Amino acid sequence: MPSITVLGLGAMGSAIAARLRVHGHAVTVWNRSPDKTEPHAEAGANAAATIEEAVAASDTVLVVLLDHASVRERLDPVAAELKGKTVVNLVTTTPNQARDTAAWAAEHDIPYVDGAIMAVPSMIGEPHARLLYSGDEHAYNAVLPVLEQLGTAEFTGEDPGVASLKDMALLSAMDLMVLGYVQAIAMMRTAGTPAVDTAAEVEAWLAAMLPHGRELAAIVDGGTYDTGGQSVDFDRFGIASLITASREQGVRADLLEPHQKLLEELAATGHGDSDWIRVIERLTIR
Ligand code: NDP
């Protein structure tokens, strides 16, 4: 079993280090605040006093710090020590931040894999923990037996930013979906409905509607927006009703207004008859 170094023992780094140790790897840990290494050392991990010592201990270094800035703050000074070792950066970053770190790694002959964790710490080690990777495919394949201990591993491409991009896209989808719950709960609260009851209704409604998402996606891939489905003009009136109803109940419609804005832009540019999903074309910044 290869020795693994884990940099960062927050909630996620601790779960990862523990998982690898339980699976039989020799694990070296380092954390900015040294007290967090103590439980790991008691459980059999090697607690490094310095990041240099931690990096020297293994050929594979997993980075689980907070953000891009903390990664560069800590890794830049040990670039020479990392030469030839595989760095897997599991920190949540933007795609360009991932590409930036990959370019830095290439300059210093450090095989680099960027990762994105689609899971919470308690899921680490379970198959439903999904971890996305991109970057150096050769390095990825070499460390895959280790990465597979963390959850289901998926290589998304050699562009080091792709795993982050997918992470951000899926998180965006979740964020907007949760805002849907917020809007419905705010509206139904005005009629005295407890939030948990509305949430249950929303859950059932969204479950019934979810397959529709793939139908809309097929229209986008078709590229013509002329399938005769729900049109921009039809949806303009629908969204106007939602906004009016919300305000009538004394609830702000700020979360709904962006959708209305996109539909109005399409109508103003002569696309009132198009499938409403044409709004996606308005999202591209040209
Ligand atoms: P925590 O806030 O629990 O831990 C942050 C870690 O980063 C700590 O070890 C902290 O050290 C360290 N750190 C912060 N700033 C610096 C710095 N400037 N220099 C050195 N170390 C620093 O975060 P998590 O462990 O939960 O998250 C780690 C990464 O995993 C993040 O990028 C997060 O987005 C990602 N992630 C987390 C998920 C989760 O559910 N927790 C889910 C998916 C991804 P110290 O102890 O000294 O403060």
Give a written overview of the molecule:
The protein is of the alpha/beta class and 286 residues long. It has two domains: 4-158, 3-Layer(aba) Sandwich (Rossmann fold), CATH 3.40.50; 166-282, N-(1-d-carboxylethyl)-l-norvaline Dehydrogenase, domain 2, CATH 1.10.1040. Helix content is 52%, strand content 12%. Strands 3-2-1-4-5-6-7-8 form an eight-stranded mixed β-sheet, sandwiched between helices. Helix 8 (162-189) packs across helix 9 and helix 10 packs antiparallel against helix 11 (257-268). The protein is elongated. The relative contact order is 0.08. The model has no long low-confidence stretch (mean pLDDT 97). It is an enzyme of class 1 (oxidoreductase). This is NAD(P)-dependent oxidoreductase. Belongs to the HIBADH-related family. Residues 4-152 form the 6-phosphogluconate dehydrogenase NADP-binding domain.
Topology:
Blueprint: E1 4-7, H1 11-22, E2 27-30, H2 38-42, E3 46-47, H3 51-56, E4 60-63, H4 68-75, H5 79-82, E5 86-89, H6 95-107, E6 112-118, E7 130-135, H7 137-147, E8 152-155, H8 162-189, H9 195-222, H10 232-248, H11 257-268, H12 279-283
Helix pairs in contact: 8-9, 10-11
Bound molecules: NADPH dihydro-nicotinamide-adenine-dinucleotide phosphate (NDP).
NADPH dihydro-nicotinamide-adenine-dinucleotide phosphate (NDP) binds next to helix 1 and helix 4.
